[in-house]
């Protein structure tokens, strides 16, 4: 079973000594990553637009995702947020209007959710999940951690992570 676990990359990057995404810090790596995303999305018939700026502040989205994952609409929200950032030109995931539009499309009361996203409980939960990601050695997203603690990073490692988990290592 795959479980979504929202966390913030900013603190993870900072712990690595990075002030931004390594794809911004290392030009050749970034150029390859963007091209790779174009190819992957093309293969999957998914729309792709490079977001500006990159990275975007994901704090609001991660908090809302935590609420949604507890209420069974979180995975649909996460997909909508990814599509907004990477599939639709000019969408800002740090804009409450973008988040509200995604929630409305899911028939979710956005006023209630946005108010809950500002609660101390959700702030603490996201902080704890970000700290846990750091403790587990996560350094980017997506990351997959099997029940035995094996870390796989990147979309291209999902199948390998599933195979590892299935084999019961």
Structure in words:
This protein has a domain at 9-119: Glutaredoxin (3-Layer(aba) Sandwich). It has helices at residues 9-15, 22-25, 27-43, 59-71, 74-87, 96-105, 110-117, 120-135, 158-166, and strands at residues 143-145, 151-153. Helix 4 packs across helix 7. It is built from 9 helices and 2 strands, in the order ααααααααββα. With 169 residues, the protein is mainly alpha-helical. Strand 1 and strand 2 form a beta hairpin. It starts with 8 loop residues before the first helix and ends with a helix. It has a two-stranded antiparallel sheet.
What is shown here, in short?
17% of the residues are buried.
Q: Helices and strands in order, then pairings?
A:
Elements: H1 9-15, H2 22-25, H3 27-43, H4 59-71, H5 74-87, H6 96-105, H7 110-117, H8 120-135, E1 143-145, E2 151-153, H9 158-166
Antiparallel strand pairs: 1-2
Helix pairs in contact: 1-8, 4-5, 4-7, 4-8, 5-6
């Amino acid at each position: 079973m795959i479980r979504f676990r929202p966390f913030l990359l900013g603190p993870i990057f900072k712990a690595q000594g990075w002030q931004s995404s390594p794809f911004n810090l290392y030009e050749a790596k970034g150029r390859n990553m963007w091209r790779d995303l174009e190819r992957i999305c093309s293969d999957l018939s998914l729309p792709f637009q490079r977001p500006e700026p990159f990275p975007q502040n994901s704090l609001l989205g991660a908090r809302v995702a935590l609420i949604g994952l507890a209420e069974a609409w979180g995975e649909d929200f996460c997909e909508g947020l990814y599509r907004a950032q990477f599939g639709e030109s000019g969408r800002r995931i740090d804009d409450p209007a973008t988040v509200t539009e995604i929630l409305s499309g899911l028939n979710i009361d956005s006023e209630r959710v946005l108010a809950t996203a500002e609660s101390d409980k959700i702030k603490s939960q996201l902080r704890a999940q970000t700290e846990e990601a750091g403790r587990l050695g996560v350094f980017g997203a997506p990351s997959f951690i099997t029940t035995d603690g094996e870390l796989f990073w990147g979309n291209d490692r999902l199948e390998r992570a599933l195979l590892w988990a299935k084999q019961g290592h």
